[in-house]
Design a protein that fits this description.
Chain A: Converts heme B (protoheme IX) to heme O by substitution of the vinyl group on carbon 2 of heme B porphyrin ring with a hydroxyethyl farnesyl side group. Chain A: It holds the Pfam family UbiA. The complex is a heterodimer of chains A (314) and B (53). With 314 residues, chain A is mainly alpha-helical. Chain A has 15 helices and no strands. Chain A has two domains: 157 residues, Tetracycline Repressor, domain 2 (Orthogonal Bundle); 142 residues. Chain B is rod-shaped. Chain B is an all-alpha fold. Chain B has a domain of 34 residues. Classes of the chains: A mainly alpha (314), B mainly alpha (53). At the A-B interface, helix 3 of A face helix 1 of B.
């Protein structure tokens, strides 16, 4: 009975549950990875067997989760300072930093090898590169050294549709890179809006976000400029092989709303924002989530309609 | 040796063990399914020569 009894001297009261290990994988980020990778996989012109497609998405998701765990391991010091991340498993002491690193490395290896075996070596190698980019290039290098951190680091979050496409076709073409560009250009306004209403969080942690290094006024202007460039790209994508009438309609409506939000943010000053607790910035952030979901949803709709002669431009 | 009331920690560890068991079982099912699909599609067959006797 002694094995199962509680020894007060060795037991940690805050010992991790299964859910804490799952939280290390950043499930919300993983849901974006799953969705965009799925769209990349299904928009590809090569049909994929459902079981192989399921495995591909699963291993891409595990790879994304593994990079999340490695990010939490490396960033444990700043996660303890920021309000938004204080409740994560490492800052709360439920999981040790070394455990998170081992968990992340093990899942990285597993996901890369399994994706390579389930689909093709190229897809596995590209997943490995994505994990490397997110953990080493973004987390270890850019995040703490440049205000352009999320601009370049956003690439890591934009790779999943490309991996999905490669998993299906075994090769590259322009279309997955358009999906990449869509997420890549969307990331800066999305995170800068968050940085505006999280106020001192990044400052306290010493992360050189644009709001900290160039000021809040410059951040508002940057949001508008990036949103305008994003709108051109998003509407232009409608006339590629992955676009069509459904996508064009969604792109026109969503980019109008997104541009209007960015314009409002650029015209506001800090007093007005403080007065209504950053209502416009918060609404823009929420809209940005819907924006990306609907754009990729429209690409998916075009792909699913194609077998019935309805998707695309005919 | 006295019997002790189940500690909250026991429940948490039990939950974690069940989670690991289910994850491993799911992994086995996925690998089995993937293997069946790959074998039935002929992914593992050696390439055939152009000239057959």
């Amino acid at each position: 009975m002694s094995d199962a009894s509680i020894n007060a001297s060795t037991v940690r009261e805050d010992e991790a549950s299964f859910g804490d290990y799952f939280a290390l994988l950043k499930p919300r980020v993983m849901s974006l990875v799953v969705f965009t990778a799925l769209v990349g996989l299904l928009a590809a012109p090569v049909p994929v067997h459902p079981v192989i497609g399921f495995c591909a998405i699963l291993f891409i998701a595990i790879g994304g989760g593994a990079s999340g765990a490695l990010n939490m391991w490396w960033d444990a010091d700043i996660d303890r300072v920021m309000k938004r991340t204080k409740g994560r498993p490492i800052p709360t002491g439920k999981i040790q930093e070394g455990e998170a690193m081992a968990f992340g490395l093990a899942l990285s290896g597993l996901s890369v090898i399994m994706l390579g075996l389930a689909t093709n070596v190229f897809a596995g190698a590209f997943l490995a590169f994505t994990i490397f980019f997110y953990v080493v290039v973004y987390t270890m290098w850019l995040k703490r050294s440049t205000p352009q951190n999320i601009v370049i680091g956003g690439a890591a979050g934009a790779f999943p549709p490309v991996i999905g496409w490669i998993a299906a076709t075994g090769s590259m073409s322009v279309e997955p890179w358009l999906m990449f560009a869509l997420t890549f250009m969307w990331t800066p306004p999305h995170f800068w809006a968050l940085a505006l209403f999280m106020r001192s969080d990044y400052d306290d942690a010493g992360v050189p976000m644009l709001t900290v290094t160039h000021g809040r006024r410059a951040t508002r202007v940057h949001i508008l400029v990036y949103t305008a460039l994003l709108a051109l790209l998003a509407v232009g994508t409608a006339f590629s092989d992955i676009g069509g009438p459904v996508y064009l309609t969604v792109a026109l409506i969503m980019n109008f709303l997104f541009l209007r939000g960015a314009w409002k943010i650029s015209r506001r000053n800090e007093d007005a924002s403080e007065a209504d607790n950053f209502r416009v910035e918060r609404n823009f952030f929420k809209l940005s989530l819907l924006y990306l979901f609907l754009h990729f949803g429209a690409i998916l709709a075009e792909a699913l309609l194609k077998p019935y002669g309805l998707g695309g431009w005919g | 040796m006295s019997l002790r009331k189940t500690h909250e920690l026991h429940q948490r560890r039990f939950g974690r063990n069940i989670g690991v068991a289910l994850t491993l079982a799911a992994f086995i099912v996925i690998i089995f399914g993937l293997t069946v699909v790959k074998v039935t599609r002929g992914d593992f067959e050696p390439p055939r020569g152009e000239v057959q006797n």
